[in-house]
């Protein structure tokens, strides 16, 4: 049985406050995008993971796919599985690729094993794996609060737009990114801003990480500027970076853009 875990982007992100447990309360808009890995499970005599595609800087036993399987095995009898993961979503990019793989693994094993778990139950298990994981269970646009784990559906479709996603060869540490942000309640909630036309998001919908991350990694900021120069209606960094996306009214052909020469670039419709 095979599935295709997809990435997400943060249309905006506000760091609202620091919690007593050291984590942060945020508000953000998660939106699924058609940049996908491939994940397959087949019955086997022993459990093993084969990973191909983009190399990941972690041993297979640390992969969130196996963590998801272990979370299910703590509750249910799951037979040995051979797992194949083809990575195409860049990691360390603010795209939630690892979280997507874990959530889709929960869904896949639920179907493969006939466990009959409902979305609420899968979300509860996903929340033990990572903050972004529960989003990918229902995989639809949401306004997220808390640590990014409390969801409110958002009536939003970007199917009329084209996405250009650019991920430079730059690593941004999430803890470091948070350490450089001063939490504050936003003047206007993203829940309100997202109701405006996309052409009115610039300057209103913001990502609080951009100021400090762009100062530390100027190239990421230049990528955002270039997307606007090439006609983006809205552009932003996703999460704590380092990927940047632009929403366009027409198809783009930016893979030959000199600044993007050594970057991962994905272009296509959001349909």
Helix content bin = 10-25%
CATH class designation of the largest domain: Alpha Beta
Task: Determine Rg (CA atoms, Å).
Answer: 19 Å
**Number of alpha- plus pi-helical segments:** 8
Strand order of the largest sheet: 1-4-6-5
Q: What characteristic shape results from the CA principal axes?
A: globular
Number of domains: 2
Element pattern in H and E: EEEEEHEHHHEEEHHHHEEE
Q: Which percent range describes the beta-strand content? A: 25-35%
Spatial separation of the terminal alpha carbons? 25 Å
Provide the CATH architecture of the largest domain. 2-Layer Sandwich
Estimated structural class: alpha+beta
Defining traits:
28% strand; four-stranded mixed sheet; four-stranded antiparallel sheet; alpha+beta; Alpha-Beta Plaits; 271 residues; 8 helices; Ribosomal Protein S5, domain 2
Describe this protein's structure.
- With 271 residues, the chain is of the alpha+beta class.
- It has two domains: 2-153, Ribosomal Protein S5, domain 2; 162-269, GHMP kinase, C-terminal domain (Alpha-Beta Plaits).
- Helices cover 25% and strands 28% of the residues.
- The chain contains eight helices and twelve strands.
- The chain has helices at residues 64-73, 97-112, 119-126, 135-138, 174-179, 190-193, 210-216, 218-229, and strands at residues 2-3, 6-18, 24-36, 38-43, 48-53, 81-87, 142-145, 150-153, 162-167, 234-237, 244-248, 264-269.
- It has a four-stranded mixed beta sheet with strand order 1-4-6-5, covered by helices on one side. The protein has a four-stranded antiparallel beta sheet with strand order 2-3-7-8, covered by helices on one side.
- Helix 7 packs across helix 8.
- It is globular and about 55 Å long.
- 41% of the residues are buried.
């Amino acid at each position: 049985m095979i599935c295709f875990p997809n990435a997400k982007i943060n249309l905006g992100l506000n760091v609202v406050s620091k919690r007593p447990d050291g984590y942060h309360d945020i508000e953000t808009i998660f939106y699924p995008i058609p940049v996908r890995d491939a994940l397959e499970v087949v019955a086997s005599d022993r459990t093993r993971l084969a990973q191909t595609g983009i190399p990941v800087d972690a041993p297979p036993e640390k992969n969130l796919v196996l963590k998801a399987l272990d979370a299910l095995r703590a509750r249910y009898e799951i037979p040995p599985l051979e797992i194949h993961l083809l990575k195409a979503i860049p990691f360390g990019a603010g795209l939630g690729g690892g979280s997507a793989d874990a959530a889709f693994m929960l869904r896949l094993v639920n179907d493969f094993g006939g466990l009959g778990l409902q979305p609420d139950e899968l979300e509860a298990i996903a929340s033990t794996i990572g903050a972004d994981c529960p989003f990918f269970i229902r995989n639809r646009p949401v306004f997220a609060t808390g640590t990014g784990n409390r969801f409110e559906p958002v009536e939003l479709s970007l199917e009329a737009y084209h996405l250009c996603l650019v991920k430079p060869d730059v690593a941004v540490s999430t803890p470091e990114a948070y350490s450089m942000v001063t939490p504050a309640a936003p003047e206007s909630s993203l829940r309100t801003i997202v109701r405006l036309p996309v052409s009115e998001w610039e300057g209103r919908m913001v990502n609080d990480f951009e100021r400090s991350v762009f100062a530390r990694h100027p190239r990421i900021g230049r990528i955002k500027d270039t997307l606007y120069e090439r006609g983006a209606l809205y552009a932003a960094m996703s999460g704590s970076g380092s990927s940047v996306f632009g929403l366009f009214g027409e198809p783009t052909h930016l893979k030959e853009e000199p600044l993007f020469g050594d970057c991962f670039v994905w272009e296509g419709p959001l349909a």
